[in-house]
Every structure is written in C-alpha cells, then in structure tokens.
From TrEMBL:
Organism: Thermostaphylospora chromogena
PANTHER family: 1,2-PHENYLACETYL-COA EPOXIDASE, SUBUNIT A (PTHR30458:SF2), PHENYLACETIC ACID DEGRADATION PROTEIN PAA (PTHR30458)
Protein name (database record): Ring-1,2-phenylacetyl-CoA epoxidase subunit PaaA
Family annotation (SUPFAM superfamilies): Ferritin-like
Source superkingdom: Bacteria
UniProt cross-references to NCBIfam families, sorted A to Z: PA_CoA_Oxy1
A Pfam family assignment: PaaA_PaaC
GO-annotated biological processes: phenylacetate catabolic process
Signal peptide boundaries: none
Amino acid sequence: TPRELQEHFDRTIEREQRIEPRDWMPDGYRKTLIRQIAQHAHSEIIGMQPEGKWITRAPSLRRKAILLAKVQDEAGHGLYLYSAAETLGADRGELTEMLLDGRQKYSSIFNYPTLSYADVGVIGWLVDGAAICNQVPLCRSSYGPYARAMIRICKEESFHQRQGYELLLTMMRGTPEQREAVQDAVNRWWWPSLMMFGPPDSESRHTARSMAWKIKRHTNDELRQRFVDMTVPQAEALGVTLPDPELRWNPERGHYDFGEPDWDEFRRVIAGDGPCNAERIAVRRAAHEEGAWVREAAVSYAAKQAERAGR
Ligand code: ACO
C-alpha cells in the first residue's frame, strides 16, 4: 500500500541506507534530485568554457596537457551526472533543452570571465576548492547513483584543486607582474566563489527538505564557513590577500568571521544577467546544434544494429 511504501522509504533514509533507482520514492524526492543533479551536470558542461578558452594559449606544453586533461574531466563529470539523472526517469535531451531555454540553472560561478592565465590557477584553487567542500558530503547523499558518481568526481576535483594551487605557487615565485596577476584574479574570484554555496540559509528554499531527505548533508552557510576556514591558511601560504576587510579569526566561535557577499549580484547572475550568461548559453546552444549529426548518426546506427539482431 502507499503507506507501507512511504514507511519503507522513511526507514531506509533513517537507517542511512541508500535509495536505488528501482525503489519507490516520493515524487518530491525524485523532482528535487533531478533538479539538483541536472543543475550540477549543466554546471560541469558549461564550466568547460571559461577555462577551455585558454587551452590554445597555455604558456607551456606541460600547462596545456594539464588543462586539457582537466577540461576533459569536467565533460566526464557532466556525463556521469546526466546518467545519474536518467536513472530517475529524466531524459537527457530534455534536460539540455531546459538548460538552453532557461528552465534549469547552472552554477553562478561560470558566468564570470577568465581574463588571464592566473584565472586558470585561481579557478582550480578557489572554484574547485569550493566544489570539493560542497561535494564531499554529497558522497553520503541518500540517492545511490548520485552518491557513487560523487566519489569519483571528488577524486578528480582534488587533482584539479592541486594543479591550480601549484600553478599559483609557481606564478607567486615569478615576476612582480605574475604576482599581480594572481592577486587580481583572487580579487575577482573570491566573492563569486563564496556565492557558489547558494543563498544564505534564511533564503534557501530547498535546504530544510533536502536535509530531511539526506540529499544535502549540510546547509549552504555551514559549507561556506568550512570553505573560508580551509582557504584562509592556504591564502597565507601562497602570499595573497583575500579581498575582505572583515575577515578575521574569531577565537570564541573557532571560525573565521567574514563579510557578506553581494547577494543582489548573486540574484542578478542566477536570473541570467551576469557578465557572461548570454555568451555561455550561446556557445552551448551552438555546440548542441553542431552536434546534431552525431546524435542522428548514433540513433540510426542503433536502429540498424537492432534490425540486424532481430533478423
Ligand atoms: N548558482 C546558481 N543557482 C544557484 C546557486 C548557484 N551557486 N545556488 C543556489 N542556486 C539556486 C538553486 O538552484 C535554487 O533555484 P531553483 O529552485 O530554481 O532550482 C535557488 O537558488 C535556491 O537555492 P537553495 O534552496 O539553496 O537550493 P539547493 O538546496 O539546491 O542548494 C546548492 C544549492 C548548494 C548549489 C545545491 O544544489 C548543491 O549542492 N548542488 C550540487 C553541487 C553543484 O551543483 N555544483 C555545481 C558547481 S561546482 C562545479 O561544477 C565545479
């Protein structure tokens, strides 16, 4: 009966066991997961653009090989995540349509421009660092396919973060111009990185429900604090200044205090009005249209294979 199904679901969540694709689940749980996983997948795919544009302008063969590998990893992450969304009954083509016509979101962070090679390092350090902070707890998310995808994604993100930090260390040991480029990139990416964790808890419409379902394990503000605490000592080791005059250690709380991100800017960016939103979607749309022949060829090949197998 419906009541028994609901009770079985609740018990599974309560006992920290995983919900799997064939299990019964409430409609809202399925919808929340599709929204979050699709948004996450779109972010990985759109996230290839800001760094991808530097592949042809990498300063050495070594940097080029590293960046190429990193951007390819992001394509891979997008694909595992679309597959995870498909286990919930979502259609990949439809999800792409929803991204292109603005019905689904992707992370605010990828709407900012990359102005120098230092940005590649800062994206690795801060953006991928924030992604790891947010995603490690998702390895314990209650939905099996999502949690399992996150394990591999987090391992790769950790490589991305280190390559960024290593790039920045190298630049900080270089010329005054290189050090300035790093500081400039840090100034531009710091606040948008804090916004990646989502709106403040008081404005987060999904957190309470998602935490009760154990999809999310921490609130947006908890993870933002964890990221700040982790990053301040790294900034000191690197020799850069984080652009927040209110940033200081609070011994009573045992955490760093920090300033308030510009939430109006955040709202504008997720509503489509950030510095690069139009460009990101236009590039994604063109890639989708130019790839139509590949999808048609794959469908036609599959049909021929099925026909041969049927004979
Ligand atoms: N960028 C764009 N939209 C955002 C962001 C952000 N940084 N943060 C929150 N939002 C949106 C939410 O999607 C939601 O909008 P919707 O109802 O239209 O979907 C709205 O703002 C309110 O936010 P919350 O209620 O806090 O939403 P949620 O509980 O989903 O929390 C969070 C947001 C923390 C981003 C969560 O979805 C999550 O952990 N997602 C998985 C990680 C992820 O997507 N990472 C992508 C970037 S990292 C990378 O790819 C390198």
